[in-house]
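Final report, closing paragraph on structural work. Over the funding period we assembled a curated collection of sequence-structure pairs, and we close with a single example.
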Amino acid sequence: MNSLLRSTARCLRSGAAVFLPRQADGRVLSAPARLLCAAADNQKDLGEMVKKDKVVVFMKGTPAQPMCGFSNAVVQILRMHGVDDYAAYNVLDDQDLRQGVKDFSNWPTIPQVYFNGEFVGGCDILLQMHQNGDLVDELKKLGIHSAMLDAEKESK
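Its predicted structure, as stored:
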């Protein structure tokens, strides 16, 4: 019961407005970006978290309200490509999650981006992929049509 109260408090502090029913594994979801408000306890949980959605972002804040410039940049890059349907985990709500994801990926910084359970990198890597066109190709492999292709066609 205590963990449920802590989870609810974290959700309310994060600004999540709409909650979906409690999941069987104990996580609480909010509707807009499926922000998970409860944190994973171990590496197995993190492995499941990154595989649950095609695109997963561990960030500071939420997609609606990023709390650092690098997290904001990742959200903006995904938005430019028309990627709105992704799981976003706010690491500021749970220090165990924040450290756990760094240990899981062996990557020291946040944000962290995963495609189909595979670690892609942080803001710098996603920005480089966006700039050189690799992000369009990677999204296509996920079955996601990049809005940048439509913008490119319209400009011709």
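Confidence is low (pLDDT under 50) at residues 1-5, 7-22, 28-41. The helical segments are 2-14, 43-52, 69-80, 95-105, 123-132, 134-141, 147-155. We thank the funder for supporting this effort.
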